Protein 1
Amino acid sequence: MMSAKGRIPKPTAIKELEGNPGRRPLNKNEPKPKSVIPRCPAWLDDEAKKEWVRMSKRLDSLGLITEVDGSAFAGYCQAYARWKQAEEFITKHGFVIKTPSGYLQQIPHVSIAQSYMKAMQKFCEEFGMTPASRSRLSAEDQSEGDDSLEGLLFGVIRKR
């Protein structure tokens, strides 16, 4: 039964990766969908599909994506693609325009980018992809000589 109020519980997989810092008993009855990368939806735009390929492999290596996470992950990827498109427009055209009366006005793409950034943030929190989530994980680099940030963040995870 789900509670109507209070903090949204973290998935057990994230608690395990964090080393269960609260030391509370882990939910032994939590549903455990098969840990596989869901099929990328055909309706995603091209940039969203690229993000799907890029991030799904990393989430899979951490055990943070399952067969039932496709819709939520698609939402993240589509929000990413639309945020990127808005940001590219802003980079190319600037973030303000001069109105016919001479006033400077923010272009709509700024608020569009902000909206999609907020949506991405919510999805990232669900998948443990925020800086705060990563700061609680301990990672070892999988490949020899790869000391890149991505290599450290998405390498082999061990509990603290």
Protein 2
Amino acid sequence: MKRDRIVCECLKVGEKQVVACIRDGKACSLRQIAACTGAGGGCTACHPALEALLEKEAPKSPAYLPSPSFSAR
């Protein structure tokens, strides 16, 4: 069985917990991830990893709303 990768060393929060929070529509920002899991609320060293997970997983969430495209005209 594959071990869960720790993304927040300060609070020992695993990637699976963060991904579940994003996919369940509970988090679409770093602040919301911190509220949901605690990750990112300590030293902030994990913010780049959390942002990468948001970018990768948010489109898979039922709560995801893509930014509207605007023309340059």
